């Protein structure tokens, strides 16, 4: 008899974490490894944010706060939503957690009953389906291929909704593809949702400030105010402010739902790190001008990576609208063999052979629900990206 629960058997470890861990182990063993699997900016947290955390420590602001965030941070979040998204929330409609992932998990745990369905467009962030499964729900995956720019159509959303549907999880710009929905594309989806009042929207806006060219970010409750009362708008400081390790995510939503999230969190982690909360206040209320500068750096890296990967035989790499990922297809590589004799049968085989032969670590597409692809995080230096993409190109050219 095992001590482990049956629920645990329904989920798998995060593939992105596994790839990053393997790359770190190989590097520690002396291999020349370039890890392109981790989804975090390579920039340091801005100095004014670090200074706010140090000041909080020195002032003794190190005690418990309210379970779902201290008043000062909730006030800053309310101002952020009003300033940047045109959304009006009161502090009682705000939840702060130890990262955006905890917000999403709390919401699913608080709302899902056995048999409830959650619509998830694919490619998806690896954690979405497994969090739904852990909460007792059923993921309904809608595959959105490269021909559609990795975006779900209104027709696909309509077809996926059933009387059992409780949530749509929406992520734009997307992890893993970087695909961003225009306001018009988003309005077409919200029109569908307005016809189905039992479906709620979980909007993961974590990459809001990482958009390129002339793309303009929008969020569902902003585009369709009629969805305001059944939308959880999720964000955080991890990506835009280079604060992944500080672990602060937040959300705005209806009071009843936010109270349920508070109840869950009060019996799990209680409050997020107090020092990190003070740092997040400084992030949201301090200078914002560096955000556009960081986005320009990521845009330059995107253009570099897309250009180099499209030179690789058998690879096709679309141009994403945001985030810091590309999601190239390797359809032209399937069925070929690597120089060591490995037959490339799928994207997982490709990525393992690539790592073994070249030391470049990327995440295979099956982990995100659409194959044959792989994800590259270009949140690293131009030099490393150039070296890594050159190795990928040479690896693909050597396939026979």
Automatic annotation (TrEMBL):
Cofactors that this protein relies on: pyridoxal 5'-phosphate
Position of the signal peptide: none
Record EC number: 2.6.1.-
Claim: Lyase is one of the keywords in the record: no
Keywords assigned by UniProt, alphabetized: Aminotransferase, Pyridoxal phosphate, Transferase
A GO term for molecular function: pyridoxal phosphate binding
Domain spans labelled Aminotransferase class I/classII large: 32-392
GO term, biological process aspect, one: amino acid metabolic process
Reaction(s) this enzyme catalyzes, per UniProt: L-aspartate + 2-oxoglutarate = oxaloacetate + L-glutamate
Subunit composition and interactions: Homodimer.
Family the UniProt entry places it in: Belongs to the class-I pyridoxal-phosphate-dependent aminotransferase family.
Name of the protein: Aminotransferase
């Amino acid at each position: 008899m095992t001590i482990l629960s049956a629920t645990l058997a329904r989920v798998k470890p995060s593939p992105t974490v596994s790839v990053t861990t393997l790359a770190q182990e190989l590097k520690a063993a002396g291999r020349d490894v370039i890890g392109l699997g981790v989804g975090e900016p390579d920039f340091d947290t801005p100095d004014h944010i670090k200074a706010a955390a140090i000041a909080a420590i020195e002032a003794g602001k190190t005690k418990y706060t309210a379970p779902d965030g201290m008043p000062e941070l909730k006030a800053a979040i309310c101002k952020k939503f009003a300033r940047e998204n045109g959304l009006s929330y009161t502090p009682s409609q705000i939840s702060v957690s130890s990262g955006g992932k905890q917000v999403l998990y709390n919401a699913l745990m608080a709302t899902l009953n056995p048999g409830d369905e959650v619509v998830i467009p694919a490619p998806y962030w690896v954690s979405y389906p497994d969090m739904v499964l852990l909460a007792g729900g059923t993921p309904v995956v809608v595959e959105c291929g490269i021909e559609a720019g990795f975006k779900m159509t209104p027709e696909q959303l309509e077809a996926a909704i059933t009387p059992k549907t409780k949530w749509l999880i929406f992520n734009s710009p997307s992890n893993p593809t970087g695909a961003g929905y225009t306001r018009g594309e988003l309005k077409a989806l919200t029109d569908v949702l307005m016809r189905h009042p039992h479906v709620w929207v979980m909007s993961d806006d974590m990459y809001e400030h990482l958009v390129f060219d002339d793309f303009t970010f929008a969020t569902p409750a902003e585009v369709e105010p009629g969805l305001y009362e059944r939308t959880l708008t999720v964000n955080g400081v991890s990506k835009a402010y280079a604060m992944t390790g500080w672990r602060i995510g937040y959300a705005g939503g209806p009071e009843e739902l936010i109270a349920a999230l508070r109840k869950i969190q009060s019996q799990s982690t209680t409050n997020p790190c107090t020092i990190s909360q003070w740092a997040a206040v400084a992030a949201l209320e301090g200078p914002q001008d560096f955000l556009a500068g960081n986005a320009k750096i990521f845009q330059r890296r995107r253009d570099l990576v897309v250009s180099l990967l499209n030179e690789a035989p058998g690879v096709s790499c679309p141009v994403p609208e945001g985030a810091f990922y590309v999601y190239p297809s390797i359809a032209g590589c399937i069925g070929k063999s690597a120089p060591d004799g490995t037959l490339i049968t799928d994207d997982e085989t490709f990525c393992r052979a690539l790592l073994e032969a070249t030391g470049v670590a990327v995440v295979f597409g099956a982990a995100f629900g659409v194959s044959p692809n792989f994800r590259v995080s270009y949140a690293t230096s131009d030099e490393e990206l150039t070296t890594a993409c050159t190795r990928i190109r040479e690896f693909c050219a050597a396939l026979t």
